[in-house]
Amino acid sequence: MAENLFVCDVDYDVLSCKIQDYWDVQDEVLKKIIDILNSTYEVSVPSGALHESIGILNDAVKLIYNNSSGIGKKVNDIVLSFLNRIDEIDLELYGG
Predict the structure, then answer these.
(1) Is the pTM of this model over 0.85?
(2) pLDDT in tens, 30-41
């Protein structure tokens, strides 16, 4: 079955899960950074040049988070779809 597919000694099912786990951790870290920057921007440094710099950094981190959030799940879904398609082709070519 495709869930046991190995190409160049790579188990793609396991690899796709690890990729999703990595991106999920990254998403959580970025969320924590955004929370810290929000708190610093709004409470700890309420005005001045540092306040503006923190705001710019916060906007940059939010942009990264918004563009990268969920990538791991998307990659995992693509790999699993690929593996399922291999199963379908195997069944078509070689039967059950």
Answers:
(1) no
(2) 999 999 999 999
Tell how strand 10-11 and strand 6-7 pair up: antiparallel
| Partners of 11 in the β-ladder | 6
Residue closest to 5 by CA, chosen among 85, 66, 92, 96 = 85
- Say what the pLDDT of residue 6 is: 56
Torsion of CA 26, 3, 93, 89, to 10 degrees: -20
* DSSP secondary structure code for residue 6 in this structure: E
Number of folded domains in the chain? 1
CB 61 within 8 Å of CB 95: no
User: Rounded to whole angstroms, what are the CA distances from 33 to 21, 68, 69?
Assistant: 19, 14, 14
Identify the domain containing residue 81 by its residue range.
2-94
Q: Which 8-state DSSP code applies to residue 7? A: E
